[in-house]
């Protein structure tokens, strides 16, 4: 497992975190779950996304070790046959990343599937994927990740302007933030902006977000529900 930083994949290195004795996915996941009993883990198979093989056995091992945790897996799936095969045999939810798509056909076909999540990927100001996909929110599934790759692991804060735009486009769909989350204050601001959730691994590894922060946020969410 590597530490993602600002979408510069050539510079990613094996993760070094106080939460885990090794960079093995199972050990890293166990470290994250030691902070809080998260119900969902996001997994990006970068080898599969970049066409260098895949880590399907590692994903299966994760699921076997943590059967009660829902996995969101982005593995670069870009055609209907591959998506069908994964949904038949893979665990939990398949994330379709816009950076892997040349058109809207795959999203259109699986828009109503309950285990499909769309990741709308941005690098800087550029949308990664077919412009038609960004322009047609009516074909998006019920859950959408707004992935600002240049902010992943950067600690500069979420891109609230882009997130607000994505939320307005999404209508009743749930929008999740990915990239730049620093601390509990960012999560409070995201919640106030109508964002359904966020990817927070970097802030957990860096110790800027801890159990007490998450427990407090959970209590606030319950009180407001």
Helix content: 25-40%
What structural class do the secondary elements suggest? alpha/beta
| Name of the CATH superfamily | Aldolase class I
- Give the domain tally: 1
Radius of gyration from the alpha-carbon trace, in angstroms:
17 Å
CATH class: Alpha Beta
Instruction: State the end-to-end CA separation.
Output: 36 Å
Shape: globular
Total strands: the figure is 10
Total DSSP helices: 10
Main beta-sheet annotation = 8 strands, mixed
Provide the succession of SSEs: EEHEHHEHEHEEHEHEHEHH
CATH topology: TIM Barrel
Reported CATH architecture: Alpha-Beta Barrel
* Uncertain runs: none
**Portion in strands:** 15-25%
Q: Could you tell me the mean pLDDT?
A: 89
Please sum up the structure shown:
By secondary structure, the protein is α/β, with parallel strands linked by helices.
What would you say this structure looks like, in words?
The protein is of the alpha/beta class. The chain has one domain (2-224): Aldolase class I (TIM Barrel, Alpha-Beta Barrel). The protein is 38% helix and 20% strand. Strands 3, 4, 5, 6, 7, 8, 9 and 10 form an 8-stranded mixed sheet that branches. The protein is globular, with a radius of gyration of 17 Å. The termini are far apart. The mean pLDDT is 89.
Write the layout of secondary structure elements.
Elements: E1 2-3, E2 13-14, H1 25-35, E3 40-44, H2 46-49, H3 56-65, E4 70-74, H4 80-89, E5 93-97, H5 105-110, E6 116-123, E7 126-128, H6 131-135, E8 143-148, H7 160-170, E9 174-178, H8 184-192, E10 197-199, H9 201-205, H10 211-224
Parallel strand pairs: 3-4, 4-5, 5-6, 6-8, 8-9, 9-10
Antiparallel strand pairs: 1-2, 6-7
């Amino acid at each position: 497992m590597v530490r993602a930083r600002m979408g510069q994949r050539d510079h990613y290195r094996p993760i070094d975190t106080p939460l885990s004795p090794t960079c093995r996915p199972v050990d890293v996941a166990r470290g994250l779950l030691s902070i809080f009993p998260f119900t969902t883990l996001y997994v990006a198979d970068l080898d599969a996304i970049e066409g260098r093989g895949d880590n399907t056995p590692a994903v299966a091992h994760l699921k076997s070790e943590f059967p009660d945790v829902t996995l969101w897996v982005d593995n670069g799936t870009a055609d209907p046959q591959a998506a069908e095969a994964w949904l038949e045999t893979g665990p939990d939810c398949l994330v379709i990343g816009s950076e892997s798509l040349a058109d809207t056909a795959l999203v259109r076909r699986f828009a109503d599937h309950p285990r499909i999540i769309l990741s709308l990927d941005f690098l800087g100001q550029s949308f990664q994927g077919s412009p038609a996909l960004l322009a047609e929110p009516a074909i998006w599934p019920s859950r959408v990740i707004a992935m600002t790759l240049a902010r992943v692991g950067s600690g500069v804060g979420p891109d609230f302007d882009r997130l607000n735009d994505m939320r307005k486009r999404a209508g009743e769909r749930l929008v999740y933030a990915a990239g730049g989350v620093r601390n509990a204050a960012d999560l409070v601001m995201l919640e106030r902006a109508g964002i359904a959730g966020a990817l927070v691994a970097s802030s957990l590894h860096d110790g800027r977000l801890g159990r007490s922060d998450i427990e407090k946020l959970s209590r606030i969410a319950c009180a407001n529900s």
